[in-house]
Amino acid sequence: MTEKPDFAKGNGLIPVIVQDVTSRRVLMLAYMNETAWTRTVETGLAHYWSRSRNALWLKGETSGHVQKVHAMYVDCDADTLLIVVEQSGAACHEGYASCFFRRFENGAFQVAEERVFDPKEVYKA
């Protein structure tokens, strides 16, 4: 039995697929390091490693749109996670419920849903 994912396989980072507990819709893809994993297990709230900021990140720390973890699954190689969450607000920093809000149609990606919030209002700083 595995107690935690194998972070060594991904040079310290592993991909995390995040799914809504009710709709089962994929909300986002993020990355975790061992510290983010530990904080997530300890708090029950999703923590990730931000590659762009090079820092630990509690999902929703700025927006208030936190992810309460309901279940966590590891794949057969122990190097990818699937986390099932209760999402408050929206998962996407662009204001959409899911980061996968653009759909490929007629040769291009088109916005396929309405925004949940205005990012200019939420991320004023």
UniProtKB/TrEMBL annotation:
Which chemical reaction does it catalyze?
1-(5-phospho-beta-D-ribosyl)-5'-AMP + H2O = 1-(5-phospho-beta-D-ribosyl)-5-[(5-phospho-beta-D-ribosylamino)methylideneamino]imidazole-4-carboxamide; 1-(5-phospho-beta-D-ribosyl)-ATP + H2O = 1-(5-phospho-beta-D-ribosyl)-5'-AMP + diphosphate + H(+)
| Details of cofactor binding | Binds 1 Mg(2+) ion per subunit.
Give the Gene Ontology MF terms in alphabetical order.
magnesium ion binding; phosphoribosyl-AMP cyclohydrolase activity; phosphoribosyl-ATP diphosphatase activity; zinc ion binding
Q: Which cofactor does it need?
A: Mg(2+); Zn(2+)
**Any idea where the Phosphoribosyl-AMP cyclohydrolase domain is?**
28-101
| Ligand binding (Mg(2+)) | 75, 77, 79
Record has Cytoplasm as a keyword: yes
* Binding residues annotated for Zn(2+), in chain numbering: 76, 92, 99
Q: Which BP terms in the Gene Ontology apply to this protein? A: L-histidine biosynthetic process
Tell me where on the tree of life, at the top rank, the source sits.
Answer: Bacteria
Which pathway does UniProt place it in?
A: Amino-acid biosynthesis; L-histidine biosynthesis; L-histidine from 5-phospho-alpha-D-ribose 1-diphosphate: step 3/9; Amino-acid biosynthesis; L-histidine biosynthesis; L-histidine from 5-phospho-alpha-D-ribose 1-diphosphate: step 2/9
Q: Give the main EC class.
A: hydrolase
Principal cellular location given in the protein's record: cytoplasm
List the GO cellular component terms.
Answer: cytoplasm
Residues spanning the signal sequence: none
Do you know which InterPro entries this protein is assigned to?
A: PRA-CH, PRib_AMP_CycHydrolase_dom, PRib_AMP_CycHydrolase_sf
The EC code for this enzyme is: 3.5.4.19
The entry sums up its family as follows:
In the N-terminal section; belongs to the PRA-CH family. In the C-terminal section; belongs to the PRA-PH family.
Subunit (UniProt): Homodimer.
- What function is annotated for this protein? Catalyzes the hydrolysis of the adenine ring of phosphoribosyl-AMP.
What this protein is called in its record is Phosphoribosyl-AMP cyclohydrolase
Gene source species: Desulfosoma caldarium
